[in-house]
From TrEMBL:
UniProt similarity note: Belongs to the ATP-dependent AMP-binding enzyme family.
Protein's organism: Canna indica
Name of protein: 4-coumarate--CoA ligase
Name of the top EC class for this enzyme: ligase
Stretches assigned to the AMP-dependent synthetase/ligase domain: 20-402
Classification via SUPFAM superfamilies: Acetyl-CoA synthetase-like (SSF56801)
Reaction(s) this enzyme catalyzes, per UniProt: (E)-4-coumarate + ATP + CoA = (E)-4-coumaroyl-CoA + AMP + diphosphate
């Protein structure tokens, strides 16, 4: 339009780096990060991040280079979320549960120039470096993050985190993104269904999703956030950057347990936490000796796996305010939110939990989430019955998969991001996940949502954790097989569990077999169903005549 010009006065590439710049001014003397007896203010955090950026530049890190980190939720991990992009580089946070073989594979893939490692994970990285050396891959410069009482234990370590910071100047000119689509981070997926894929986040997407996470977590200024979500997972659902925007306090913890959660909440007057349903399950099943009364309102954002209504119900009983979000690494973590409506407040608690276990609607930074037939690309009717694939469109969808243009094109085919998740849409527009396409069970031509069967299993008083997979069957194709971990001190037979399910589900959906054991999980709280599927396969088919009794 005549009179309109785009210039630096009115058009600046969006980047979450600006949140820290502002926090140092507005909240300069407020506490930014707490870790045991260590605490920093926002002014100090900004200075430390500038030193970090300056040190990286001194090591030859340039725009577009990758800097990797393997560390739990400690202050250095938080600082890297700003220091690395300030140097114009791309942060690659690796999963702390990976072994040396996986770390070496990902380091080779991402070609990190510099790597930061926590002292407890040094052995894993040493193993990875050995494997890389065998392949004659250039090793990254290794920075060791130790704690005051620990000494440097390896010749592979080039320097210490604190000395790197202290010898660098805080006078550093930030390398702001030239284009807001420039990458800020590289996040490998959880590897639940296949080998992890390298998801590229942009400054723009990170900026938008950070602001959205503030909104959907109901975060006012100066929140106190307990880091129970791994920062390596989707950059802590983008809350690493979001906390700076609100001048919040980051309570860093190395390990997560119910006792640590309750103690930290009461010590630091925590206002917000987040976690996969496994974390919620840990809270609701905590022994009385570990539980403490909540000092005030505590908002909990859950996601990463389907939260069973029973667990949501018990969390509310304990006084937590739970928000339920769903998304993927490819959508910067949260993509939808089960936006709560006041008219639901007066419903019985169990109905509220059932409503809240739905995945909801797209958040404000996305354009749309739809449930489509993946072949015709037609939207499914909002009948809560017709299953389709969840598809996203909008500004908080990844740039693509690093070094895998074919996978990127496949994921975006048809102009939508295809999630690989199956869901239905309810009449009120809210979506509800039924399964991952790789997990759904097809028995005698009927689709069985493993999420629905697991919800019933979770409502059994003796069940602590449950997962259902398809077991190959000569007659039915597949039958549901449940893997169950019982609560400590509880006792229950397979027949009792099967009867419990049959009383609450159509017979074909009820498990035909129950195996009692610990469930294998990823560090992002997802049950590794491919391992269970292998076990179910090894069990062989049920007898044909018993199958026909269904
Ligand atoms: N609220 C939720 N309810 C149900 N499932 C969820 C929820 N949030 C996330 N998920 C599941 O987690 C998946 C996203 O996980 P993530 O991006 O961490 O990697 P992954 O898909 O597990 O790993 P990979 O793609 O390597 O197998 C979603 O596709 C969905 O299946």
């Amino acid at each position: 339009m005549e009179g309109s010009i785009r210039c630096s006065a009115n058009y600046v590439p969006l980047s979450p780096i600006g949140f820290l710049e502002r926090a140092a001014v507005v909240y300069g003397d407020r506490t930014s990060v707490v870790y045991g007896s260590v605490a920093f203010t926002w002014r100090e955090t900004r200075e430390r991040c500038l030193r970090l950026a300056s040190a990286l530049a001194g090591l030859g890190v340039s725009r577009g280079d990758v800097v990797a980190v393997l560390a739990p939720n400690i202050p250095a991990m938080y600082e890297l979320h700003f220091g690395v992009p300030m140097a114009g580089a791309i942060l690659c946070t690796l999963n702390t549960r990976h072994d040396s073989a996986m770390v070496s594979l990902l380091l080779k893939h991402c070609e990190a120039k510099v790597m930061f490692v926590d002292y407890q994970l040094l052995e894993v990285v040493q193993g990875a470096f050995k494997l890389l050396s065998v392949e004659k891959v250039k090793l990254p410069f290794l920075v060791h993050i130790s704690e005051p009482t620990r000494s440097v234990p390896s010749p592979l370590v080039n320097t210490e985190y604190e000395s790197l910071l202290m010898t660098a100047s805080p006078q550093f000119e930030i390398r702001w993104p030239i284009d807001e689509f420039d990458p800020i981070s590289l996040n490998y997926t959880s590897g639940t269904t296949s080998r992890p894929k390298g998801v590229i986040y942009s400054h723009r997407g990170a900026y938008l999703n950070s602001l959205v996470t503030i909104l959907i977590n109901d975060m006012h200024i100066l929140p106190v956030f307990l880091w129970t979500v791994p920062m390596f997972h989707c950059n802590g659902w983008c809350l690493t950057w979001g906390l700076a925007a609100q001048g919040g306090t980051n309570i860093c913890i190395r390990n997560v347990s119910a006792k640590i959660i309750f103690d930290s909440i009461s010590l630091h007057k925590v206002t917000h936490i987040g976690g996969a349903p496994t974390v919620l399950n840990m809270i609701v099943n905590a022994p009385d000796t570990d539980q403490k009364p909540l000092p005030g309102r505590v908002n909990v954002m859950t996601g990463a796996a389907p939260p069973p209504p029973k667990v949501l119900f018990k969390m509310e009983e304990l006084g937590f305010h739970v928000m339920h979000s769903y998304g993927l690494t490819e959508t910067y973590g949260p993509g939808t939110i089960c936006t709560w409506k006041p008219e639901w407040d007066s419903l019985p608690a169990e109905d509220r939990a059932r409503i809240k276990s739905r995945q909801g609607v797209h958040h404000l930074a996305l354009e749309d989430v739809d449930i489509k037939d993946p072949v015709t690309m037609k939207s499914v009717p909002p009948d809560a019955k017709t299953i389709g694939e969840v598809m996203f469109r909008g500004n908080t969808v990844m740039n693509g998969y690093y070094k895998d243009i074919n996978a990127t094109k496949e994921a975006f085919a048809g102009g939508w991001f295809r999630s690989g998740d199956l869901a239905v849409r309810h009449a009120d527009g809210y979506i509800q996940l039924k399964d991952r396409s790789k997990d759904i069970i097809i028995s005698g031509g009927e689709n069985i949502s493993t999420i629905e069967v697991e919800s019933v299993l979770f409502s059994h008083p003796a069940v602590l954790e449950a997962a259902v997979v398809g077991r190959p069957d000569e007659h039915w194709g597949e039958t549901p097989c449940a893997f169950v971990k019982l609560k400590e001190g509880s006792c229950c037979s397979a027949e009792e569990i099967i009867k419990f399910c049959r009383d609450r589900l159509p017979h074909y959906m009820a498990p035909r077999a129950v195996v009692f054991e610990d469930l294998p999980k990823t560090s992002t709280g997802k049950i590794q169903k491919f391992i269970l599927r292998e076990k179910a396969k090894a069990m062989g088919s049920l007898l044909r005549n018993s199958g026909s009794k269904l």
